[in-house]
Amino acid sequence: MIREWTDSTIKRFLKENRGQGEGATYKAWLQVQDIASQGRSTRIYSHKSQRVIHLLSDLQLYYFYLLEFDNQVKTVKEQYPLLDFYEQNIQLDEKLSGKLFNSKTNVPHVLTVTYLVTRGNENNVPYLEARVIKNSSELEKKATIDRLELMRRYFEKKDIDFGIVTEKEIDKLFARNIGWVLTAYDITDYPEIVGNFVYLKEDILELLKSKNYTFYHIFSRLEKSYQLQDGMGLILFKHLLATKQIRMDMYKKIELTNKIASYNIQQVKLGGENHAISS
Fold it and tell me: What is the pLDDT of residues 13-46, one digit of tens each?
């Protein structure tokens, strides 16, 4: 854990290529083992970025789920350092300039933004946006506000959209539901599903048309028909949601003992055409 920033720490991070690379080769400037986080720190695999993501709070994790599930998002860089801040010739008054260095050691602060996100517009042309994830209570601290102002000016200089996201802008139930389905994004460890995937998908879609069935009833019938292990029906269902082959109302609490009628489950056809399979 880093107790105090020193020149040697910064040099070590640069030598380790922290804050550099693209896609699967990017390395977060701050990693889980480096600092004491607020809340639970998490290492989690991103299928979009094809690498392990380092997150330092539950709120960062919830926002990661939203990004990972967003069709427009191509890749993310978490804990992204503004290493070229001093090269931007940003006009600062004496007060803000003083925030750039540790008052005790005079070591320069490396400002980091929680996420630098690459998105695709309506024509699939990539563009960047920067997001800082903070609890709203932190925005009452003067030091935090000053750092955010420094970052705002940096991204304004680079013509990159900059924003602050707090717990007030994140639907935690929706985010948790996304996290729940993403655990089954990769099913390569389930050969009994992979080997019969086409037939299993066809049958579960047919079963989902029966609006008075509960989730458990559907999964149980599927497992018995194919002699699958218990739980395989649920994994298949979550996989179809995670990979956008079906969709449902994810803003509701998902209770597997509930009837499926209230979740508005839809099959997603190739080309974007949706067909309701439950009403």
Answer: 999 999 999 999 999 999 999 987 556 899 999 9
Cα 111 versus chain centre, distance: 21
Domain boundaries, the chain: 7-170, 185-276
Tokens, residue 59: 């709120």
For 158-193, what is each residue's pLDDT tens digit?
999 999 999 999 999 999 999 999 999 999 999 999
DSSP state of 249: -
Residue with tokens 């047919």: 206
Q: State the Cα angle at 53 between 48 and 54, rounded to 5°.
A: 160
Helices and strands of the chain, counted as H and E runs: 9, 9
- The answer to whether the beta carbons of residues 82 and 158 sit under 8 Å apart is no
Is the per-residue pLDDT at 207 higher than 60?
Answer: yes
Is CATH 1.10.10.10 what the domain over 7-170 is classified as, yes or no? no
How much helix, strand and coil, in percent to the nearest 5, is found in the chain? 40, 20, 40
17-21's contacts with Cβ under 8 Å and 24+ in sequence apart are: 18/81, 19/79, 19/80, 19/81, 19/83
Cα end-to-end distance, the chain, whole Å: 52
Q: At the top level of CATH, which class does the domain 185-276 belong to?
A: mainly alpha
Q: Which residues pair with residue 44 across a beta bridge?
A: 53
